[in-house]
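Trying the structure run again after the queue cleared.
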Amino acid sequence: MSELLTVILLGIVEGITEFLPVSSTGHLILATRLLGYDAGRWEVFNVVIQLGAILAIVVLYWRTFWAVGMGLIRREPKSWLFLRNLVVAFIPAAVIGLALHHYIEALLGNAEVVAIALVVGGFAILAVERFAPRSDISGVADIPLRTVVGIGLLQCLAMIPGVSRSGATILGALALGVERRTAAEFSFFLAIPTMLGASGLELMKNHAALTSGEGVGLLSIAIGALVSFVVALLVVKWFVGIVTKHGFVPFAWYRIAAGSAALVWLLSK
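Done. C-alpha cells:
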C-alpha cells in the first residue's frame, strides 16, 4: 500500500474515532500493526493528526467559543467559569503527561495493551451506564469545581493507549453527575488544550526526524490531519445525537468485540 493511501486511511480512522469513546490512538496503533508498518515511524503522525479532528470542534462550536470570548471581555461570570473549568480539567493531564512522557511513549507501540484496554473500557462503560447517579448538571459553566478536578484526573487514564480520552472524560463526567450532552461537549472542548499540548510536544521532540525523512513527513501529517478534520466534522454531530437518545451502550459492546477480536488476532500471530 502506498504511503499516501495509508495516510488517508489513518486520517479516516482518526476522524471517526477521536470523539467516540473507543480510543482513536488505540485504533491507529492497531491499524498500523494490522498493516504491518513500523509503529515507531508512525508514532508522531498518529498523535499530530489529531489536530485536524480538534479543528473540527472549533469550527462546529465556533458560536460557543465566540460567545465565551465576548463574555470574557464583558467579564460575565458564566464565561469565566467556562474558562476556569477547561483550565482546571486540563492541568492534571499536562502535569502527569510531562512527568510520565517516556513511560507513555513506551506504550504507544503496544497493540496488546490497546486490545486489553478496549475490552476493560467496554465493561467500564456498561458499569457506568448501569450505576451512574442521576445526571442533573447541565452546562459546562455549571459543572462544580470538585467535579471538574475529578474529570481532569480521570482524563489521565487515557494516557494508556486504548482507554480513550473522550471515553474517560465523558464517562467520568456521567459518573460524577453531569448530564449526557454536557458531558460530551465538555470532553470535546477539553480535547483542544489537551491535544494541542500533546501534538506540540511531539513536534518539538521529533523535529529533526520529521525534516530528515526518518519518520513520516510533514506533508503526510498535513494530509492526514486534513482528512481527519473533514471526517470529524461529519461524525461529531451524529455522535451527540446518538448518545443523547441512546446512551453509550452500543460503543461499549463495540469496544468489547473489537478488543477481543484484536487480542485473538495478536495472540495467534
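The longest helix spans residues 218-246. Worth checking whether this holds up in the mutant runs.
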